[in-house]
Amino acid sequence: MRQVKNKQFILLKSCFLLSVFFTASSCVSQVTVTVAQDDIAQAINNDRWDFSADFAQPSYGRSRNITGTYYVKCRKDTLLVALPYYGKINSPAGANNENPLDFKSTDFKLTKEKRKKGGWFVTIKSPNPEVQSVTFTFFDNGSAQANFIMTNRSGINFSGKVAAAK
Known about the structure:
The structure is a single chain. With 166 residues, the chain is α+β, with helices and mostly antiparallel strands. It has a single domain (41-164), classed as Lipocalin, CATH 2.40.128.410. The protein has one helix at residues 2-45; strands at 49-58, 64-65, 71-75, 78-82, 102-105, 109-114, 120-125, 131-138, 143-150, 156-164. Strands 1, 2, 3, 4, 5, 6, 7, 8, 9 and 10 form a ten-stranded antiparallel β-sheet that branches. It is globular. It starts with a helix and ends with a strand. 19% of the residues are buried.
């Protein structure tokens, strides 16, 4: 009888400790997510963020996962774009044979708008003759989407992550 009570006590104690552990673990991850959201919001407010792409969705052709280091880096006065392009040329006038999404610009206009459901819309108008505009949708969890509207080519969308600049 005594062994049964000891086993019950050990089982009850183990259940209690596991519940405390899991409760504490969930609280820690909530704090981490809040800190990450604050870092992202501050980075967007200060125009110091990095978008890293991991999936491309061209207007024509198949969607594909992206391997390698492809990004958009925004600093207050510099925009650095290094992304792959998959699509087609709509008008050869003004289009060159180089990758239109591989450029650096110091002359761009950036506008920001908070989303109603959390996160941000960031639109960049570029003087690059190939790119009319880029609209980023940044979500509170760090995921992001980029929509490139091109001048002489079909548009392309990217999915990825946003983070504060290092």
